[in-house]
């Protein structure tokens, strides 16, 4: 998993950056670092972002439809108006993230991890009962990203 503490970045990174109205669709960008950044109306449609670190970010109006987000660490981020339709989120860590007005239609959340809580903006508000049944729910808080 990439980190801001890596001596040499292994791939793409967005650290304390703003990315707005960008097209990153249909790219191969596994193990990308997104940290403390603001992404606005950016398209990641069909992009391979597997095993990326996506902690401590704000995503507004981003489109992850059909993207491969398997094994991503997506903790403690805010997703507002984002699309995850038919995205692959197998084994993704979604703890402490909030989701407002997001679309997860047809997304694969097998073995994804989320809190077993019901708070305003939790992922469970946007998932079908079938999707929730494939997830791992935990009462344990996660280790803070980067810590």
Overall description:
This protein is mainly beta. It has 1 helix and 10 strands. The mean pLDDT is 85. Strand 9, helix 1 and strand 10 (136-138) form a beta-alpha-beta unit. The protein has one helix at 129-133, and strands at 13-15, 18-20, 33-35, 38-40, 53-55, 58-60, 78-80, 98-100, 113-115, 136-138. The protein has a 5-stranded parallel beta sheet with strand order 2-4-6-7-8, with no helix packed on it. Strands 1-3-5 form a 3-stranded parallel beta sheet, with no helix packed on it. Helix content is 3%, strand content 20%. It starts with 12 loop residues before the first strand and ends in a 9-residue tail after the last strand. It is globular.
SSE layout and pairings?
Elements (H helix, E strand, L loop, with lengths): L12 E3 L2 E3 L12 E3 L2 E3 L12 E3 L2 E3 L17 E3 L17 E3 L12 E3 L13 H5 L2 E3 L9
Parallel strand pairs: 1-3, 2-4, 3-5, 4-6, 6-7, 7-8, 9-10
Structural class: mainly beta
Largest sheet: 5 strands, parallel
The number of distinct helices, counting runs of at least 4 residues, comes to 1
- What is the percent of helical residues? under 10%
**What overall geometry do the principal axes of the alpha carbons give?**
globular
Q: Which value, in Å, is the CA radius of gyration?
A: 14 Å
Number of strands: 10
Which structural traits does this protein have?
3% helix; 147 residues; globular; 1 helix; five-stranded parallel sheet; mainly beta
Short description:
The protein has 147 residues and is mainly β. It has one helix spanning 129-133, and strands at 13-15, 18-20, 33-35, 38-40, 53-55, 58-60, 78-80, 98-100, 113-115, 136-138. 37% of the residues are buried.
């Amino acid at each position: 998993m990439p980190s801001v503490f890596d001596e040499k970045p292994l791939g793409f990174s967005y650290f304390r950056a703003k990315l707005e109205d960008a097209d990153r669709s249909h790219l191969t960008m596994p193990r990308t670092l997104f940290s403390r950044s603001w992404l606005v109306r950016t398209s990641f449609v069909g992009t391979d972002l597997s095993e990326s670190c996506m902690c401590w970010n704000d995503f507004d109006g981003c489109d992850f439809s059909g993207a491969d987000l398997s094994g991503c660490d997506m903790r403690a981020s805010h997703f507002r108006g984002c699309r995850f339709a038919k995205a692959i989120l197998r084994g993704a860590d979604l703890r402490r993230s909030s989701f407002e007005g997001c679309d997860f239609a047809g997304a694969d959340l097998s073995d994804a991890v989320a809190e077993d809580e019901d708070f305003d903006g939790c992922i469970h508000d946007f998932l079908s009962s079938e999707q929730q049944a494939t997830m791992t729910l935990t009462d344990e808080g996660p280790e803070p990203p980067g810590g």
